Amino acid sequence: MSQPKTVDRGVSLIKFVLGLLRAHPDGMRPRDIYAEIESKLPLDDFDKETMKGSGLPRWRAALHFLSVAATKAGLLVKSDGRWRVTDEGQKFVTLPDYELKRLMRSRYREWRWSHQKSKTDAGIANAVDETPPPDTSVLFEDAKEKARDEIDTYLDTLSGYEFQNLVAALLGVRHQHRFKAGLGWRDGYPGLYRSARRADAAHPVQVKHRDQTASREDVAALRGIIRGDREIGLFVSSGGFSREARREAGNGSVHIELVDLDRFLELWLQHYSKIPEVKRSKLRLEPIHFLAVVSLT
Asked: How far apart are CA 272 and CA 38, in angstroms?
């Protein structure tokens, strides 16, 4: 039997991933997706061959590259250290491989043209149809996932109290006032921080530190203690939020700001230099720079 082309193999892997994520609407971590592929798909020597440039197995390199096209095509979302299938991705998961490949190629081109990309990335859309994934693109995507996985693994070792202290340190800098520490800082109960606008007001802050996503019931419980005429709510969840939780936060007149791990890390880096050293040392991050030849985000 002749071996399929690398890109065709990548399309079949993307199709499997979309189907897998359909059963996990709140998403999965990449490492768990890879484990599912290794345990449930018949990977042969061709798939397992190590690519010279990236050092990854061929199937991983193909999946990395085609996942970019799937993301730009609106079938897949990568956020909060997880991959999630979109509503459109769920609809198109039943397409034959050749139709799915054509769809991703067409939508990627539409995305590229709408963003007025330079000629340096003009070959990517054709690559979805013809060529193996560029080593630079695969290395960049793999480096991002590995870096995020290390951060997630470290945060998993922190207790709920330790993670709440990180949130408290960030809030103290972001709102430029002293955080009211030690007031209700227990998992499942709201803490309080002072409003930067009204020194006499205190707004409820809910912090969840767990692997599971925060549910609609969690958000509704926070809403129930907010005085809508003068308070807003803040919900920080290291496990992210379910779709129902996000819809719940958007309902009603009471404003609730949701902060998942992506947003928390973005804010941590934004205010990094202002966070006191003793607190910054609890989550020390360093930037890594790549040559921006191809935009993957």
From this structure: 38
Compute the distance between CA of residue 39 and CA of residue 31 in angstroms, rounded to an integer. Answer: 12
Q: Which CATH architecture has domain 158-283?
A: 3-Layer(aba) Sandwich (3.40)
pLDDT mean by block of 10 residues, the chain; 297 residues: 60 91 88 92 88 81 85 86 88 88 84 61 48 56 77 86 88 54 41 46 77 86 78 85 88 84 89 89 81 47
Residue 173 has φ and ψ, to the nearest 5°, of -85, -45
In Å, how far from its chain's centre is CA 184? 29
How does DSSP classify residue 7?
A: H
Beta bridge partner(s), residue 207:
236
Q: Is 66 helix (H, G, I), strand (E, B) or coil?
A: helix
Closest by alpha carbon to 15, among 35, 47, 43, 41?
A: 41
30-40 vs 135-157: helix crossing angle, rounded to 10: 110
Q: What are the sequence ranges of the domains in the chain? A: 6-156, 158-283
CB-CB contact of 235 with 218 (8 Å):
yes
| The predicted structure's pLDDT at residue 126 | 52
